[in-house]
Amino acid sequence: MWRPIPYSSFYTPPDAPFPNGHIALRPILRVTLRNGNKAVPCYAVVDSGADHCIFPLSFALALDLNPLGRPCGTIGGVGNPSNPIYFWDIMLDLEPTLQINAYVGFTEGLEAQGVGLLGQCGFFDRVNVRFNHREKLFLIETDDHTKP
Amino acid sequence: MAPAVTDFTRLLEGVPPGAWVALSHDEGRVVAFAAEMKEAIAKAHEAGEPNPVILRVPHVATALAL
């Protein structure tokens, strides 16, 4: 079944290249991160350019996941080619019908944004996604495979 | 008919830049905000929202390329 989800809009104020400001439409999903009985309801951008599902490091701490002594990797993006990142197996609960167990990264590099990214490993390799920016919605296919 | 676009700009009006925000579980209103995520969650619990949705208002509202 294809589930339609509206884009979310964010206004960015005027600056030199956009003197009238700009309204950004972003494909954002509500997701609850679960580790045992700990849960963090939050938001994540559906980001086909991200290799992994990643979230701010403070979300890991709220899930009782301790980075001390945890193997540390690196992840790059615009503005910083090498952020430390820590991975754990957790559940991504995309209400109402989709639960995904995935190996999810947590990094200080997303603290400023305060949202996660749903990337290729753990999200795009589990569900089908269609973007329809002109209609201001995107669609996620859950298991019964009805055509959109 | 497509569902309406979620307008975060309106929802987060009045929240200072850089603040962590706790939304009501139905995502309809800001329950609390604070400089630290933990503090925003604690304030939301005090306000009677046991399961707030967490996000952050950026220090500077800019275009994103994540």
Summarize the structure.
Chain A has 148 residues and is mostly beta strands. Chain A has one helix at residues 57-62, and strands at 2-6, 8-12, 22-26, 28-35, 38-46, 54-56, 73-77, 80-94, 98-107, 116-118, 128-132, 137-141.
Helix and strand topology:
The complex is a heterodimer of chains A (148) and B (66).
Chain A: E1 2-6, E2 8-12, E3 22-26, E4 28-35, E5 38-46, E6 54-56, H1 57-62, E7 73-77, E8 80-94, E9 98-107, E10 116-118, E11 128-132, E12 137-141
Parallel strand pairs in A: 5-10, 6-9
Antiparallel strand pairs in A: 1-12, 2-3, 4-5, 4-8, 7-8, 8-9, 11-12
Chain B: E1 6-7, H1 8-11, E2 20-23, E3 30-34, H2 37-46, E4 53-56
Antiparallel strand pairs in B: 2-3, 2-4
How does this model look, in words?
The complex is a heterodimer of chains A (148) and B (66). By secondary structure, chain A is mainly beta. Helices cover 4% and strands 53% of the residues of chain A. In chain A, the strands form three sheets. In chain A, strands 4, 5, 6, 7, 8, 9 and 10 form a seven-stranded mixed β-sheet that branches. A three-stranded antiparallel β-sheet of chain A has the order 1-12-11, with no helix packed on it. In chain A, strands 2-3 form a two-stranded antiparallel sheet. Chain A starts with a strand and ends in a 7-residue tail after the last strand. Chain B has a domain of 42 residues. In chain B, strands 3-2-4 form a three-stranded antiparallel β-sheet, covered by helices on one side. Chain B is of the alpha+beta class and 66 residues long. The mean pLDDT of chain B is 89. Classes of the chains: A mainly beta (148), B alpha+beta (66). Chains A and B meet through strand 1, strand 2, strand 3, strand 5 and helix 1 of A and strand 1, helix 2 and strand 4 of B.
